[in-house]
Amino acid sequence: MLIQKIVFQSSQTCTLTLEDNTSLELDILCVTSNNLREGDDVSQELLLQLQEDTAYINARKTAVHMLSRRMRTEKQLVQQLCAKGYSSQAVARAIADLKNWGYIDDIAYAKAFIEYRLSNSKKSWRAILWELRREGLSTDDIDEATEDFDLDEEQRAQQVSEKILGLHRDQKSLERLKNALLRNGFSWDVVGGILSQYQQEYMEE
User: Fold this and answer.
1) Residue 128, C-beta contacts closer than 8 angstroms, at least 6 positions apart
2) For the chain, what percent of residues have pLDDT higher than 90?
């Protein structure tokens, strides 16, 4: 298949027109690295490879743009790139590059996620770990990310309870505390222990 015309659209893309008037929008790097010129006779295999390489480069650029806005897990990037129409092959190649460059770090993501949740939510450890699994993190990555944290659920419940109650220890406040703790993923056993502690304090006052 003869190349009739090559038009450079920008610093990154060009349009390659073939003798059957088919037009392909390709990444410039794909064209220049193969030393393609007008009048060249190119095989169907090479044309397919050029399209695949362009899709991979575009997927990688899109992923870098996503990561420049906020951290994402590998699973999130794969899902979002596939949703944008990139092939699984292009996505896999793009993800491999980003992992090699250190742009994707699920363990660092998990640590940042945990720190944010501990500071800005009333979630239990059980709920936080469930959220990490939902984000697509593996058990091994979660285990490594939590090595530096104390996963004591009772201590977490105590911290959350102090935020919720403040100086209030009346029955209405304790009922509100119970509902809040259960809603944020604390087990009945942990909630019962916390309520017993505060009810004792309330009776002693």
Assistant:
1) 113, 114, 117, 118, 185
2) 60
